[in-house]
Amino acid sequence: MLLADGKGAATDHATLELANNTSHVTWFNAKGERDHHRDGWVLDVRQDCSLSLWFSLFVPFSVLMEQDHAMNVDVPMPPTDADRRVEEFKKCGSQCRVETIKLQQQEFSGDYLFGQFYLQTGKTLSNEGLQIDLHQNGLADLVTGFDATAPVAFMRLPLRVGDSTIVVYSAAPPGKAKEGVLLGFPHRRPA
User: Rounded distance, CA 17 to CA 36, Å?
Assistant: First the structure.
């Protein structure tokens, strides 16, 4: 992640706060200090669709292939809160799982992954009303050889997380990535 001051930061995770439908990104700077980037991002809830857009992810396959490193961060905590935090970590760790995102091979596959992460907000899980517009998502600026008319096959992966369902739609649309990893959130809350 590149910060406003031009310094890099290692993104750790994105959080969706279900109570108010807002998101933030947690990152660590070069000194290993944790910070939250909040920019008023809100879940894109649509009346005609049971899925609400949480965020979009653009990542070149070359970046995914290089994921052979680990990041360790020591986060100080007050001794009075240590037991609760250890138990919370154990609880979260026991629920952790790894899911593989599989892409459908197609004639014009690009060299990057484009994914959109949705939260099920309707009563039934349905694709009805869902539209993924690659041009609107800025892919023409992120890749060379982008073709908005080429057919793109998105794979759908529903994931149960606690009491919620996250649905990932992923594909490798045509083109060659000219950007690194980008994480995009919809709608900012009006000022």
Answer: 13
- Report long-range pairs for 73-77 (Cβ below 8 Å, ≥24 apart): 73/12, 73/28, 73/32, 73/34, 74/32, 75/34
Residue with token string 């919620």: 164
Residue 94 DSSP code: H
Closest alpha carbon to 110 in 138, 139, 131: 139
Q: Is the CB of residue 22 less than 8 Å from the CB of residue 15?
A: no
What is the tens place of the pLDDT at every residue in 6-63?
Answer: 445 567 788 899 999 999 888 877 777 778 887 888 999 888 899 999 999 999 998 8
86-125 burial string, b = 16+ CB within 10 Å, else e?
A: eeeeeeeeeeeeeeeeebeeeeebbebbbbbbbbbbbeee
Encoded tokens for 73: 């961060």
- H/E element holding 176? strand 176-177
